[in-house]
Specification:
elongated, 3-stranded antiparallel beta sheet, 398 residues, mainly alpha, 16 helices
Length: 398
């Protein structure tokens, strides 16, 4: 049996003292809250809505139209993003965190864009969260986006755009707990087996293969390997120091130094004979090596067929750049793993492998220093516990 249509409620707009009714994404203001006139208009609007009739435009008296100063959710989100674009930026470009805020803001605007920001409450936030669960997002992602939406309203309260009670009420919405919701759980990042890495390296271009080797020997983040330059390396000691001025936690006042030992130094040597401020690992170099290898393997005489440089486009859509990004580095590895017919893996897994080995052989504190973590708890996420030690103990006392 078909359920009867839901009757929209008679509500108060706190900022203006007006009554309003929400019809889908449309907000119809009815006049002074509690007045007989507003109740009469509410009954008329609801009757038309339930009968499927278009709701007639109400007379535009000042008492019935929300003043221009009423801030909607859309307006608050747009103001926050204008601020966040410069706050979450590095090198003049928005960071990934800004992109996440932008996504959270779009979600809030799509569902509640025309709702007065003052009226956005915990039930609205839970509704948005339920939508993310339905969209199949991971629990940790949903919790992160929920926190960002609350942060937008907290910023609004600090700027006196909404009352302090709005973010306080939103903060009462508890995060989703593992196993206590319908949200899917994301798969943890695991170390990658050395045999898989070795098989993949064979299929990689020489430049990318050396990036993998360097990351393997240093535990550096993928982005740190991508932006390495000769001028960033202190080669005065037997262990080279790669100190980053701009890194993931620089805004917290943290320093990040990557220690490069003999094996990493051997990988880097051939990339240091260049301008000091030029990136060590460049796609344009990799492409040049690929073309040189193709030319060396050519069997057609130069007097026949295409000559080098004659079969290239004058204005190609894409050209090899002067540095790899985290994404292009990961894509190169994924393609090589597919050619090698091994399990797909990512550069971040190399960091986990390195952390596990350092923790196993030298302890948690050493792993914390080498990974550049300020707290041991973060290191424990990266460094898998050595199961072999547990097995030894069990044999002795179990």
């Amino acid at each position: 049996m078909k359920s009867p249509p839901r009757v929209p409620g008679y509500k108060l707009h706190k900022a203006t003292g007006q009554a309003f009714v929400r019809l889908g994404k449309r907000f119809v203001y009815l006049g002074k809250y509690g007045s007989q006139e507003s109740h009469a208009k509410y009954a008329d609007v609801v009757r038309q809505h339930l009968l499927g009739q278009p709701v007639a435009a109400l007379p535009r008296r000042q008492s019935e139209v929300p003043p221009a100063t009423v801030l909607t959710v859309r307006g608050l989100v747009d103001r926050y993003l204008a601020y966040a674009r410069s706050y979450y930026a590095k090198g003049g470009k928005p960071t990934a965190e800004f992109a996440k805020f932008d996504t959270a803001g779009v979600l809030a605007k799509k569902r509640y864009g025309e709702l007065p920001a003052e009226d956005f409450g915990p039930l609205c936030l839970e509704d948005l969260r339920d939508g993310m669960i339905g969209a199949g997002l991971a629990r940790t992602t949903i919790n992160g986006q929920t926190r960002r939406i609350v942060a937008i309203f907290k910023w609004g309260a600090a700027k006196q755009l909404v009352s302090a009670g709005v973010p306080q009420a939103l903060g009462m919405v508890a995060g989703l707990r593992a196993g206590r919701s319908e949200a899917r759980e994301s798969k943890p990042v695991r170390p990658v087996d050395d045999a898989i890495v070795d098989a993949t390296i064979v299929e990689l271009p020489e430049v990318v293969a050396d990036m993998v080797r360097l990351q393997r020997y240093t535990g550096a983040r993928p982005g740190e390997v991508c932006k390495l330059r000769p001028c960033d390396i202190d080669r005065s000691g037997d262990v080279w120091l790669y100190t980053l001025a701009d890194h993931k936690t620089a805004h917290h006042g943290k320093r990040r130094t990557v220690f490069i030992g003999p094996q990493g130094q051997a990988v880097l040597l051939k990339y240091l004979a260049r301008a000091a401020d030029t990136y060590c690992f460049r796609p344009c170099d990799s492409e040049a090596k690929r073309r040189a290898a193709q030319h060396a393997a050519r069997t057609t005489p130069l007097s026949c067929g295409n000559r080098p440089g004659t079969n290239t486009k004058s204005s190609p859509l894409r050209t090899a750049g002067d540095r790899y990004t985290k994404d292009s580095y990961a894509r190169a590895i994924a393609r090589a793993a597919k050619r090698a017919k091994v399990e797909k893996w990512t550069p971040n897994q190399l960091r986990h492998t390195y952390a596990t080995a350092v923790r196993r052989d030298h302890g948690l504190e050493a792993a914390q220093v080498m990974l550049g973590h300020s707290g041991a708890k973060v290191t424990e996420i990266y460094a898998e516990r050595d199961m072999a030690k547990g097995a030894v103990v069990a044999r002795l006392i179990g």
